[in-house]
Amino acid sequence: MTRYLFTPPAPASLPVRGSDARFPVGRIFCVGRNYHAHAIEMGAPVDKATMQPFYFIKDAASLLESGATLPYPPGTCDLQHEMELVVAIGAAGFRVSEAEAEHLVWGYACGLDMTRRDLQLVARQAGRPWDLAKNFEHAAVLSEITPKAGPDVLQAGAITLQVNGLTRQSGNLAQLIWSIPELIADLSRFYHLQPGDLIFTGTPEGVSAVVPGDRLSGSIEGVGELTLTIGEGE
After folding, report:
1. If you average pLDDT over every residue of the chain, what do you get?
2. Does residue 25 fall inside a structural domain?
3. In a domain? residue 88
C-alpha cells in the first residue's frame, strides 16, 4: 500500500446521463478559434487552407459541475464566457485517421471555457502562454456526459448561451472549422489519447464579460444543458 505525505485529491469526474456511474476525467484539451465569427471578433481570422488547429490545456482540477457557483476569480476585471461542445474520449488512440476517430468518442457534454480575457490579451500581445487566462480554479464548467447515441459523431446542432435570460451566444455545430474527427485525428498526432480525456471544441461568437450575480444557462441540441452562477470574489 502506497504511503503518501498528505492525502491526494479525489479523482476528477462527471455524472453520466442515465447511469449512477461517473466518468473519470483525465486531461482537458481546448481548441482555440474553431468558429470563423469568433476568430474574427478576437481579431485573429482563421484560414483553414493554410493553418492548423492549436490547443491549450486546462488541469482536471479546474473542473466545476453545472449548477454550481463560480467565485469571481482573482487577478482579472474581465471574466468572459465561452460556450462549447465537449467531446468525451472513451478509447485509447494514437495517430488515428479521421475515419477511425469516431470510435474514440464515448459521449458529449456542454462546457464553459471561462477566460480571464484581460490576462489572455496581455499574454497574446507579449507572445506568452495563456495559462493564467485559461487554466485556473473552476475555469472548466461541465454538464453531465451524454453517451453517444449511434456510431456517427455530431455534425450539427444549435449551441446557445444566455446570461440573465438574454442570448449572448448562438451558433451551430455545423459551423466548426475543424470537425470532431479532424480534431481527434490531429490531437492524436501529438498525444496518446486516453479514456477520460475531454476536448473542448471551440466557441461561437458573442463572448462577453460576466459579473457577480449573473446567471448563465447554456444548451446544445442533442447533448444537454448547463447552468452557472457567478459569485462574489474571494
Report:
1. 95
2. yes
3. yes
Say yes or no to pLDDT of 118 above 90. Answer: yes
Dmax of the chain from CA atoms?
54
pLDDT at residue number 19:
97
Q: How far apart are CA 44 and CA 129, in angstroms?
A: 16
Residue 107 inside a domain? The answer is yes
Give me the CATH number covering residue 202. Answer: 3.90.850.10
CB within 8 Å of 171: residues ≥ 6 apart: 35, 37, 158, 159, 160, 204, 205
Please, what sign has the CA dihedral across residues 179, 184, 187, 189? negative
Residue 9 burial by CB count (10 A; 0-12/13-18/19+): exposed, middle or buried?
exposed
- The 3-state DSSP class for residue 189 equals coil
pLDDT score, position 194? 98
Write out pLDDT tens, residues 210-221: 999 999 999 999
Task: Work out how many domains the chain is built from and give that number.
Answer: 1
Strand 215-220 versus strand 224-231 pairing type: antiparallel
What backbone phi and psi angles, to 5 degrees, belong to 181?
Answer: -60, -40
pTM for the predicted model, two decimal places: 0.96
Helix (H, G, I), strand (E, B) or coil at 179: coil
Separation of CA 118 from chain center: 19
Range of 30's domain?
Answer: 13-231
Residue 222 lies in a domain: yes
